[in-house]
Amino acid sequence: MAKRSQVMNQIPAIVNSQLRLLGENIQRARLRRNMTLNDLAMRVGVARTTLIRLEKGLPTASLGVLATTLWVLGLDSTLHELANPEKDEFGKFQERQYLRQKASGKKRAKLAKGASTILDEIEGLDY
Predict the structure, then answer these.
(1) What would the pLDDT profile of 69-108 be if each residue is shown by its tens digit?
(2) For the chain, which residues make up each domain, given as ranges?
(3) SS3 annotation, the chain
(4) pLDDT band at residue 127, thresholds of 50, 70 and 90?
(5) Cα dihedral across residues 94, 97, 102, 105: positive or negative
(6) Is the Cα dihedral 34, 36, 42, 44 positive or negative?
(7) All residues at 6 or more sequence positions from 45 whose CB lies less than 8 Å from its CB, including other chains
(8) pLDDT for 22-76, tens place per residue?
């Protein structure tokens, strides 16, 4: 139990706020569909207490329960957009920087190899 508490204490406040908002949104969606916690729990295949934790935004709810709950509620259509690499502008920037550095490293290696070849030719000349 100590490990779980330690992990929960390390979650940034902004993440906890987002999880609470997500839980509230799930609860609102369930209520709009006139579903009880028991109804939704049965359709998701989990215990009622698991859904209570999810609706409270507690980080102990699993990703599988979240995804299945969204699916049951018909809210899963944009789930694949989470962490979409095409929308990761910072990641794409970092990737371009890495590729540039890698390419310039190859150019340096190629130039160094070319320079050593020229030096070998020069050394082979008789003056």
Answers:
(1) 999 999 999 998 988 999 999 988 888 888 878 777 665 5
(2) 2-81, 85-123
(3) CHHHHHHHHCCCHHHHHHHHHHHHHHHHHHHHCCCCHHHHHHHHCCCHHHHHHHHHCCCCCCHHHHHHHHHHCCCCCCHHHCCCHHHCHHHHHHHHHHHHHHHHHHHHHHHHHHHHHHHHHHHCCCC
(4) very low
(5) negative
(6) positive
(7) 68
(8) 999 999 999 999 999 999 999 999 999 999 999 999 999 999 999 999 999 999 9
- From first CA to last CA, the distance across the chain in angstroms is 81
Which CATH number describes the domain made up of 2-81?
Answer: 1.10.260.40
- One-letter amino acid at 117 equals T
- Written as six digits, the tokens of 36 are 């009880």
Write down the pTM of the prediction: 0.70
